[in-house]
Design brief:
homodimer, 185 residues, five-stranded mixed sheet, 5 helices, globular
Chain lengths: 185, 185
């Protein structure tokens, strides 16, 4: 297992808090998923669908991203694409081998494609997207044998928190639309 | 059929040169594919795999792109992604409805995904990529019923020219590598 970074602040908690390797991996995954959720909340604050992601190398966050599709007026402004762009800058290469992405929602076909093209080693997903996800729902682009790269995938880390955040966003949106409609009448 | 733009310079040749609608559509497709090939040659000049693309709205090129993956050190620097980014800026929206992309090589999973996410209406492809293409070879992400958008696809426009350009590039590359090896001995 790779070296565990920083023991204080937003680094990982001290060793020994969770016993055994499985507990340690789970703790690490939840730690970085919380950072991805922090990113998603930035999207929420902009009235964007709350999706966030971080990319981690050697237990350090090297890139962050959140959905800004409406704000930036481009479908390329998905959280994963923004983070991949920054991660490439951080490592100085188009290959992100050794990197792990933590993302609050199952990636779409474009982002799953970008993950494979960038040769990320691992992706950790919060909740699934049964209607459009391409990491196991509609398709599984991350683990396709016919591509020249396959990604290791973990699903369901802080699933409920990621899922509730999205449901709440769409509930808010419906209520806002109702209010606007009332004002128009 | 949409209005045909400019009759001189790099616009479309005068009406009447090709008789009938089929001839006119073919002429238009070849015209814009030539512009995509011009972009691919810019990649070639940088020792990048020669792939180029243009995006057309109302018979006018609104965005151009060519592969710069090694130069820019990111897998996001594929021709199609660069062109989509510029096209979104040109139309001021993340939706590229009504736009047609002309691309010299069948898009990969990331670019095909970006095309669907950006809701491009049509894609015209030069040559296919049997080992990695996702517009009919490995997968067909552009015409999948299960996504919320399907793209109209035309394949094989100036196919030989696009294909020969790629073969020549890889032949050059092999020769360069041989020469380097000789120098090292």
């Amino acid at each position: 297992m790779a070296k565990i970074a920083g023991e204080s602040g937003r680094g990982l908690p001290a060793k020994g808090q969770f016993k055994g390797n499985v507990g340690r991996v789970m703790m690490k995954q939840e730690h970085f998923m919380k950072e991805a959720i922090r990113q998603a909340k930035k999207a929420y604050a902009l009235d964007e669908v709350p999706i966030g992601c971080v990319i981690v190398l050697d237990d350090k966050i090297i890139a962050r991203g959140y959905n800004r599709r409406n704000t930036d007026k481009t479908a390329l402004a998905h959280a994963e694409i923004a983070a991949i762009k920054k991660a490439c800058r951080a490592v100085g290469d188009w290959r992100l081998e050794g990197c792990t992405m933590y993302v609050t929602l199952e990636p779409c076909q474009m982002c799953a494609g970008a993950i494979v093209q960038s040769r990320l080693t691992e992706v950790v997903i919060g909740c699934m997207n049964p209607k459009a996800g391409c990491a196991g729902s509609i398709l599984n682009l991350l683990e396709m044998d016919r591509f020249n790269h396959q990604v290791q995938v973990t699903r369901g880390v802080l699933e409920e928190e990621c899922s509730v955040m999205l449901s709440q966003f769409f509930k808010d949106l419906r209520e806002k639309k109702k209010e606007q409609k009332k004002k128009m009448e």
